[in-house]
Amino acid sequence: MNFTTSEENYIKSIYHLQQETGTVNTNSLAAEMHTRPASVTDMLKKLKAKKLLQYERYKGFKLSDNGKKLALEVVRKHRLWEYFLVEILEFDWDKVHPIAEELEHISSDELIQRLEKFLGNPSFDPHGDPIPDRNGKIPVLNQLNLSEVPDKKAVTVSSVSNQTAQMLEMLKHYKIALGTQLQVLQKFSFDGSLEIKVLKQSPCIISEQVAKNVFVHYES
Amino acid sequence: MNFTTSEENYIKSIYHLQQETGTVNTNSLAAEMHTRPASVTDMLKKLKAKKLLQYERYKGFKLSDNGKKLALEVVRKHRLWEYFLVEILEFDWDKVHPIAEELEHISSDELIQRLEKFLGNPSFDPHGDPIPDRNGKIPVLNQLNLSEVPDKKAVTVSSVSNQTAQMLEMLKHYKIALGTQLQVLQKFSFDGSLEIKVLKQSPCIISEQVAKNVFVHYES
DNA sequence: TATTATTTTTAGTTTTACCTAAATTTTATT
DNA sequence: AATAAAATTTAGGTAAAACTAAAAATAATA
């Protein structure tokens, strides 16, 4: 079947919201989509009619299997294009999101397969988010929140959950990017801030708020 | 200013039609767009209001300077994406048109500038059509129609004007592609067909209809 | 020139994706 | 449990881009 850009965007937003909450409600989807609850209700009916959604009025909703499949296809395209923009066209990683929002709706399957191959079948996008494969399977990495890392342990940054321009600007300042190696020197229980040492940099202190959004992994 | 995909497609079609005829009429544009004359009239009013068109009802129309500028931007994007699809993603040249039709509407200027640079600032797309530069300037190549080439002269294929799947399939059969070197051995005045010799191939005969759509150049 | 044919435009609909305002259902609170 | 608050849906409307059918303007022809 064939879906509009708008339908794909709704499905993608529902997918992201239900990752956190299991089931999604009208108001939060309206907020996420920068639209009105009434518009969401309209679209929910369409998506239900297309069997992308489990939805009973006033009861919240979540994606059907078809819906999840579509969501993963869109997420896959988005992240492959982000990878292309950063690794091939050398965009800064904090500039690529809005462009990938457009590119993710280009319909050709063959395009995505060839792009993936050209990029070398990457598993993670430039923000560290996993890229679903063509069957919708998502690669997993044993990641740990930076605020939970034991002191002195050498870890590598693998993803950042808050990807606002403000956050990415801060990380750039601290010279933290994906793949950056660092250690936690100590934790201050007063405000949850951390003293860290980024490889080849002087130690510095980051707030709990920043730490909570940074995920790392280490060889076990 | 900001334009819809539909507006961009109309502008592009008008541009192509007026290359041949100078001024364009409603019916031919409707045919080109696979739409109805009434729909064209509706859009003409919008495009005129946006100052992209010189248009008086019942009198035909052509692009304004703004319209030409927009058309060249869209053509530029289309051809750069075609180049990308063929040269980087290794698509067959007869498969890329519909995909480029979608990609040409991605809005980011920076994307196109980086893409162009990554591709090495190509001047001609895989069909031999010139790629306008960021100022809308179109590179020119001294091309000659294959049916007008003097006998025995060694020439190089530089573009193909009919880019239907059928034509491209034929050319593939004859092992003719952009950059192919060939000679005309003789012309048959009976039906205008040509005997040609493609480099490293046995001589073969092509119809006048094919020859009229193939353009070549040679070092002067 | 009068008439016919063609081209183009107008008028009125449809679909998609939004909107506001008002009604309804669910949830929370006294 | 009754009422207030919040969330959700319905009703009715708009704008973009298409459509059909009919009217109007232009071009072609007897």
The biggest sheet of chain A amounts to: 6 strands, antiparallel
- The mean pLDDT of chain A is 94
Shape of chain A: globular
Percent of sequence in beta strands of chain A: 15-25%
Radius of gyration of chain A: 19 Å
Identify the biggest protein-protein contact and residues per side: A-B, 18 and 18 residues
Strand segment tally of chain A: 8
CA-CA gap between termini of chain A: 44 Å
Structural commentary:
The structure is a homodimer of 220-residue chains. In chain A, strands 3-8-4-5-6-7 form a 6-stranded antiparallel sheet. In chain A, strand 1 and strand 2 form a beta hairpin. The mean pLDDT of chain A is 94. The longest helix of chain A is centred in the middle third of the chain and has 24 residues. In chain A, helix 1 crosses helix 4 and helix 2 crosses helix 3. Chain A has 8 helices and 8 strands; from the N terminus they run αααββαααββαβββαβ. The radius of gyration of chain A is 19 Å and the shape is globular. The first copy, chain A, is of the alpha+beta class and 220 residues long. The N and C termini of chain A lie far apart (44 Å). At the A-B interface, helix 5 and helix 6 of A face helix 5 and helix 6 of B. Chain A binds a DNA duplex (30 and 30 nucleotides) through helix 3.
